[in-house]
Design brief:
By secondary structure, this protein is mostly beta strands. Strands 1, 2, 3, 4, 5, 6, 7, 8, 9, 10, 11 and 12 form a 12-stranded mixed β-sheet that branches. Helices cover 2% and strands 22% of the residues. The relative contact order is 0.05. The radius of gyration is 41 Å and the shape is elongated. It has helices at residues 79-83, 220-227, 298-301; strands spanning 12-16, 46-55, 61-68, 72-77, 88-98, 104-110, 117-119, 127-130, 144-150, 168-173, 177-188, 196-208, 214-216, 238-241, 253-254, 264-269, 274-279, 283-285, 304-308, 312-313, 331-335, 416-418, 442-444, 468-470, 549-551, 575-577, 604-606, 629-632, 684-686.
């Protein structure tokens, strides 16, 4: 296999100013340069080159056309002008046009090594010599000349005239374009200079800029399939670029697309224990679809020590989903220096894994400070299950992102996420964005304007280590679902929700369930007019939850139908204010106060506002509570109960009705869910 270096030749044009203004007002030359250097005269003042193989527009070679307004710089001095040492200027216009994709570069110099402006009369030996450094016209000494140039009217200092061997850069254009350069030559004569015309031929050199050769890797999934079997199982520990072509006889596989200008190869190097790649191309582009490129690469090789992306240009990539997903393996070190994400739209599960972290296989931190995420639409699961010790995304541009679901879910190593101030105007999905991340101690999402979000269910669920949650300025006005939003945040002692707008929320089921360290919670700003489900909203399965006072007097429950287990397990509850509760539409009160009001004993449960005409299930409603008094009204009825068994009471040794009826094992049935009066035993008391 021949890996010799082949480079595209650039079109090069040099032409000389060689005719006088008054002989020909416009230079007329044209050359067509083909691959073998053939040229053709075309028209006056223009020279055109064509370079087969150099990209121009599709199906056409690159061309370079040059035209000039005058071939020679000429200055004529009268005796009067010389006597006054008048500073004079002469202008030349150069037009350069190319369709070469990387443009062209133009140089200016003397036609030879002589930079003097000489007389047309061979008998006159006096001459103008070039200035030696940049200077303005006032800085010229006698018998000196220079030039200045611009794409507009030339201004500023004049520059020395360059020798042909040391041509001066006139202009570089890096895109296909037509550009006009204005050259202005300036001279200052001396009074003793002979009158006459002084002339110099000037050389303009234009060259098309080098067009780099390129190779494009095959799509990510195909790339992974190609390299995952190159090396022996459990032996390969790294992936990187080789500095030289593979040795003769090496078994290689082509990992570039069929239409690449130059192929790219990959092979196994047993000495380095590496998968290596190499290409003779100037640029190696990752495929537009680089999804799954290194996903689960450890399935054959085990944990990887190093994946080096150096030399792979990712500027064209749109899909990086699952690109470095570790599966059940770890990528210890990932070099993303120069990693270009400016065109990426999909970063789903990009750095995720199946949560296989252990102290012995924690990867090195990744620097995300240079990530350009301005075009990313989805970051769903981007770091889900990742074993990274830190994740710093404060510089992320999330203006276009619509999906952040599970973005930081299932983390077991990372301890903090600072996403404060991220602009998220288009995000519509944050489902379980932080859920089940047992290592997280701190989350800052202050300033998030989530006006496009309707579902925040499980957003901060099951975060057992979380002690700090900053929700300042958190926008919730369009949210309809807050089910399990903070469920299982068992170490969070303080939660400030005063800025929450809950006017559209319909589901608050399990919203604060198992927040076992919460000392108190102020929900006075909550608007619950549209809520239909409050099941297990404050339920606790943790031992000894600290909340003893809960004021829900501002709650509007007129649309609630489900209060199943709402206060279940709140064993230390002493004061519960439900005075505003409208329960006319509630159908399920099963386990509502199960294991609540346990300590201290003999407390009061005030249900005097309850109207239970539509409740069909009260099973276990007061099981195991040690309250002594339950206030109720005649509107607390059991006529709609349809479920069996239908025992609201169980193990309530302290419960005593208004007429002295006390609980025993024979009194469990729903008929005791009434005000205790003579001849009608019950466990309730009419509130004074």
């Amino acid at each position: 296999m021949n890996f010799s270096n082949t480079k595209r030749a650039n079109a090069l044009r040099r032409f000389q100013f060689s005719k006088i203004f008054y002989l020909l007002p416009f230079l007329t030359l044209s050359f067509l340069v083909a691959l073998l250097g053939v040229f053709v005269i075309e028209s006056a003042g223009r020279t055109t080159f064509a370079t087969p193989g150099a990209p121009g527009s599709p199906g056409h070679p690159a061309t370079l056309t040059t035209s000039v307004s005058s071939p020679t710089v000429n200055f004529h001095f009268s005796a009067a002008e010389l006597q006054s040492s008048t500073f004079k200027t002469s202008s030349v216009t150069v037009n350069i046009s190319t369709n070469n994709e990387t443009g062209a570069t133009t140089y200016v110099s003397s036609v030879d090594e002589d930079t003097n402006l000489n007389s047309n009369d061979p008998a006159i030996t006096q001459k103008f010599t070039s200035i030696t450094s940049e200077t303005g016209s006032s800085g010229f000494t006698q018998n000196k000349w220079g030039y200045r140039a611009s794409t507009s009217a030339p201004s500023g200092n004049y520059k020395p005239i360059a020798k042909a061997s040391q041509a001066d850069l006139l202009y570089t254009e890096n895109t296909p374009n037509t550009v006009t350069y204005n050259l202005e030559f300036g001279v200052k004569p001396s009074p003793d200079l002979p009158a006459g015309t002084y002339t110099k031929r000037i050389l303009i050199s234009s060259v098309t800029n080098h067009v780099p050769t390129s190779t494009v890797f095959i799509p990510g999934q195909n790339f992974k399939n190609a390299i995952i079997s190159l090396g022996p199982t459990g032996v390969v520990k790294s992936f990187k670029r080789a500095n030289v072509a593979p040795p003769a006889g090496t078994a290689t596989t082509i990992v570039s697309t069929a239409d690449s200008e130059v192929p790219a190869y990959a092979w196994y190097d047993p000495a380095a224990g590496s998968i290596l790649w190499w290409s003779d191309a100037d640029i190696a582009y990752a495929n537009e679809d680089s999804s799954h490129m290194f996903e689960d690469i450890g399935d054959n090789y085990g944990n990887m020590d190093f994946i080096d992306m150096a030399g792979i240009n990712t500027s064209r990539v749109k899909n990086m989903s699952y690109m470095f997903h570790g599966g059940k393996w770890i990528i210890k070190r990932l070099n993303l220096t120069g990693f270009d994400t400016s065109n990426v739209e999909d970063m789903r599960e990009m750095f995720g894994s199946y949560n296989i972290c252990s102290p012995s296989n924690i990867p090195d931190p990744i620097d995300f400070s240079s990530f350009n995420t301005s075009n990313v639409r989805t970051m769903a699961g981007m770091f889900s299950g990742a074993c990274l010790p830190t994740i710093d995304i404060r510089n992320f541009n999330t203006m276009m992102v619509y999906d952040m679901s599970r973005m930081f879910a299932d983390l077991t190593v990372t301890t903090s996420i600072d996403a404060s101030g991220l602009q998220v105007p288009n995000v519509s999905n944050v489902d379980r964005i932080f859920s089940r991340s047992e290592s997280l101690l701190s989350i800052d999402v202050s300033g998030w304007n989530l006006t496009g979000i309707s579902d925040m269910s499980e957003m901060f669920a099951d975060l057992p280590s979380l002690t700090n949650l900053n929700l300042h300025g958190f926008e919730t006005r369009n949210v309809t679902n807050m089910k399990s939003m903070f469920k299982g945040a068992s170490s969070l002692a303080n939660l400030d929700l005063l800025s929450f707008d809950t006017s559209q929320v319909t589901n608050m089921a399990s919203m604060f369930k198992d927040m076992g360290s919460l000392n108190n919670i102020n929900l006075s700003s909550f608007d619950t007019r549209n809520v239909t489900d409050m099941s297990e909203m404050f339920a606790m399965t943790v031992v000894n939850p600290p909340i003893s006072n809960l004021d829900l007097s501002s709650f509007n429950t007129s649309n609630v139908t489900n209060m199943y287990g709402m206060f279940q397990g709140m064993s230390n509850l002493v004061n519960l204010n439900l005075q505003s509760f409208d329960t006319r539409n509630v159908t399920n009160m099963k386990d509502m106060f199960y294991w609540a009001f346990m300590t201290p004993e003999n407390s009061i449960i005030d249900l005097s506002s309850f109207d239970t005409r539509n409740v069909t299930n009260m099973e276990g409603m007061f099981f195991y509570t040690k309250a002594k008094t339950i206030y109720a009204s005649p509107s607390f009825v059991t006529t709609a109960i349809t479920t069996t068994p239908h025992d609201p009471f169980m193990s309530n040794p302290n419960l005593t009705g208004a007429n002295g009826t006390t609980w025993d094992w024979s009194k469990r049935d729903r008929i005791y869910a009434r005000i205790d009066t003579p001849g009608n035993p019950g466990f309730f008391t009419q509130k004074p």
